[in-house]
Design goal:
The chain has 203 residues and is mostly helical. It is built from nine helices and no strands.
Length: 203
């Protein structure tokens, strides 16, 4: 799930940019330790919340969040010009570590990890999410160097979005099969509004 969430994400684009400036292995090493730290926080938060909430509601709300992440993925991310410096004042490892740590705060991969941790074991989500993100970024770096950074962005975004929608619909069904129609109506309204907000054309 996190491997898919990272496809086309701004942190993956950041990995491509940094790998063009520095040694790819240094970039991956920085990404690994930064992700390990950030996802430890998000996994712990999700695991703690999951212990306090009813399982059916956790699954249902997590399903809604996955669909929202799907719309987020379809919209895509972009990098700001300030993220593309190749003249660091610190060691590249610490530049990558700090940059990714900040970039991941509130990002959809972190939120996806939090959602998954509400229903799955702490260690499985923490280690799995870290490896998923590192492998996804490693793929971006390798393919980007081979193709000159010309990735099939639209195909990647649509494929990742479909996976999120599928996981979200399944989770909603598993958790909310016995819920009233009014709950489902409210959930579908939330999904529709989020889809509109993420996919609307800028004026």
């Amino acid at each position: 799930m996190i491997f898919v969430a990272e496809l086309g994400d701004k942190s993956q684009l950041l990995a491509l940019t940094l790998a063009a400036c520095f040694n790819p292995w240094v970039v991956l090493w920085g990404i690994f330790w930064s992700t390990l730290a950030v996802h430890a926080v998000s996994t712990a938060a999700g695991w703690y919340l999951g212990e306090l909430l009813p399982t059916d509601w956790v699954l249902f709300i997590a399903g809604i969040s996955f669909i929202v992440y799907g719309f987020w993925t379809l919209r895509g991310d972009s990098l700001n010009g300030g993220d593309e410096s190749c003249k660091p004042s610190i060691h590249p490892f610490w530049l990558v570590f700090s940059t990714f740590f900040v970039a991941e705060l509130g990002d959809k991969t972190m939120l996806s990890t939090l959602s998954l941790a509400t229903t799955y074991p702490f260690m499985a989500v923490w280690i799995g999410s870290t490896l998923g993100m590192v492998l996804s970024d490693a793929l971006a770096i390798a393919v980007g160097k081979m193709l000159g950074k010309k990735l099939p962005e639209n195909i990647v975004k649509v494929g990742a979005g479909v996976v999120f929608f599928a996981f979200g619909a399944l989770s909603m069904y598993e958790g909310g099969a016995d819920f009233d129609l009014s709950v489902w109506a409210l959930a579908l309204c939330i999904v529709a509004v989020s889809g509109y907000l993420f996919l609307r054309r800028p004026s």
